[in-house]
Design brief:
Length: 423
């Protein structure tokens, strides 16, 4: 049986690999590591279809290391220990050419105990661990394992990368290269691919299979849209619709449409989405899109996160729905989100500006003699627990980062600030 196009075109060398030049380009970190043959443990974090598994296999092939794989979806502690024993036997073999590589796909789905079972083998060099995850490792991977494995971030493929992939598929694939393929437009193809190489190749697979033999295969916006409307799940063979649906869910909540938000929530639940992942998105939504317009939203979202983690499914669907409806119908504000981003841009632009002397800490007599903490005014010593004084660095005096949005809660906060600061 013929393998899917995405598998037929899977790169086998770095020269064939597309994208991620910040990691594998000439002189970049992973390229240097691979060229030296001294590969240390790391975790690849990025969206689906950007080459995480492919890169791990290329590293194993290039370094001639024995390659072992585990899927966090189907493997438990028992399977982890068994494969580590196989790696230990392999590393002790006289025929071994390098430390075995253990590749764990979706490592974020490993429980704490499963991740704990990896520590010893990674620490003592029995294996080189390469993990792949679509979730932020800071939240999903235990700290001891993170301290032993560098995290590298992979990016969605850009249009030039997708163009290279499309050209390669049309020109070199054993099926497409024998067919008459006319590429007229690529906007829809690239848009539906969403920076995902596998999704692009799955769309091409769908179009090839639905084009009668003897008829030219035409790639243009009209053809791509029509084929995907006829079979909207066909290009999503690896479950990548996950990202489209969570995007629809977030935008429905942000757009104050509770019916659409609950629908997309139901789609995720019915599709077997991790309920803790959904709850985490609700916490982020509460802070980013509702914020100071209704601070209770963050309290409810956090309570939902804790509740879902405790009770699991199917009952977890109820607090998820309650929180979804509450957030969708709540007043909206992104002023806190905009404020911290503006402040971060300022920090990037102006660097480490000195802290004004009067608000510096002065734990030693030397610091006091240097003026640290001098003339600081303790707010609680003044009427209303407030007194005007300088808190920003000299260069940023008068700079504002937080700007209230037009909702009653923030208008009240802004009125208080105007009275305090006269601005």
């Amino acid at each position: 049986m013929l393998a899917p196009l995405a598998e037929r075109l899977r790169p086998k060398t770095l020269d064939e690999y597309i994208g991620q030049t910040h990691l594998v380009g000439p002189g970049c970190i992973l390229r240097r590591m691979i060229d030296s043959g001294n590969v240390s443990s790391f975790i690849l974090w990025g969206p689906p279809g950007v080459g995480k598994t492919t890169l791990a296999k290329i590293i194993a092939n290039t370094t001639k290391s024995k390659f072992f794989t585990l899927s966090a979806v189907t493997s438990g502690v028992k399977e982890v220990r068994e494969v580590i024993e196989r790696c230990r036997a392999e590393s002790g073999s006289m025929f071994s050419q390098g430390r075995p590589i253990l590749f764990i796909d979706e490592i974020h789905r490993f429980s704490k105990s499963q991740q704990d079972s990896l520590l010893g083998a990674v620490e003592n060099g029995t294996v080189t661990l390469i993990g792949a995850t679509t979730e932020n490792p800071s939240f999903e991977v235990i700290r001891p394992l993170l301290s032993r494995a560098q995290v590298y971030t992979l990016k969605s493929l850009e249009a030039p990368d997708l163009q290279v992939l499309l050209d390669r598929a049309v020109q070199t694939d054993e099926i497409l290269s024998r067919r008459g393929v006319r590429v007229e437009q690529t906007d829809a193809l690239f848009r539906f691919s969403g920076g995902d190489a596998r999704k692009l190749l799955n769309i091409l697979d769908l179009m090839e299979q639905s084009t009668p033999h003897g008829v030219d295969m035409v790639i243009n916006d009209k053809e791509v849209i029509e084929r995907l409307q006829e079979n909207p799940a066909a290009y999503d063979k690896q479950g990548d619709m996950h990202y489209d649906i969570i995007s629809a869910f977030i935008k429905s909540v942000r757009g104050s449409d509770p019916d659409a938000a609950v629908y997309w929530l139901a789609r995720m639940i019915a599709g077997g989405e991790d309920p803790v992942f959904i709850a985490r998105r609700l916490v982020i939504l509460a802070a980013e899109d509702i914020g100071l317009a209704n601070p209770n939203a963050l309290l409810l979202a956090n309570a939902t996160f804790d509740t879902v983690a405790k009770i699991g499914m199917p009952e977890g669907r109820i607090p998820l729905a309650e929180c979804t409806v509450y957030l969708a119908t709540s007043a909206k504000s992104n002023s806190a989100y905009l404020a911290i981003d503006a402040a971060l841009r300022e920090v990037h632009d102006s660097g480490d500006l000195p802290v004004p002397l009067h608000i510096r800490n002065a734990p030693t007599s030397l610091m006091k003699n240097l003026g640290y903490g001098a003339d600081y005014k303790y707010a609680h010593d003044y009427p209303g627990n407030f007194v005007r004084q300088q808190f920003l660095p000299d260069r940023l005096q008068g700079q504002r980062f937080w700007h209230p949005c037009g909702n009653p809660a923030e208008e009240r906060l802004d009125d208080v600030q105007k009275k305090r600061w006269g601005r």
